Amino acid sequence: MVMLMTPDAWNLLAQAPAPTLPETVGLFDIMQKGGLLMWPIYMCSFIAMAVFFERIVYFHRTYLSVGEFLAGIKNLLKREQYREALERCDDGNGLPVALVVQTAIAHRHLPPDQLREIVREIGQLQVPRLEANLSILATIASITPLLGLLGTVYGMVETFIHISTSTAGALPVAEIASGVWMALVTTGAALALSIPSFVAYNYLVSRANSMIQDMERAGIETIHALLEPPARDIIQMPPQESTRIARNKPA
Question: What residues does each domain of the chain span?
Fold first, then answer.
């Protein structure tokens, strides 16, 4: 077929303008098409990132190797070195686990039931510190899909309003596409925010629950260490040996 083309046809083909490729649409252009409902989604995204990084920094600062910490505390309690144990808790700078252990040692003279109750109460007071701002992240993960759905409805309503009020008969495709843009962009942006927010919320909840379990473990083991008889560096003789010495004692 190519061999049958005349020279004039080849000249016309060479003079024909090259086809223009469609302009690449950037991310900013896509987000701009979302309309006014993109601004609440932007705001939610900034809040979610702020909450996530704040909680990550907090959990990093309050991390404590519970096993190693409790081993040192119990070793001091067995030797009745209570002041040294309290000083080691002070080195924790108010960490939840260290605060629970410190409370138990400071109230060691109370009856066991009262001691357990005080330790339980101080542990419950630390829970709000661990779960701070997590409700904000959960709310963002829940409402952003609704914002996306609202954007979808708004975009489709705007499209049908343009169609119904058009006086020129057929509405241009560009105007129809504008409403569809808004519907799709808001939904996609909302899902892109909701999914990571939900994952981040569950991760932070697991970190908080892990620290709550560490506090419970620290309280239980510290109370048990306080209720155990202290270690005495005294050589205990068997009962038979002590009786024999008593019999041989001169009058």
Answer: 36-141+198-227
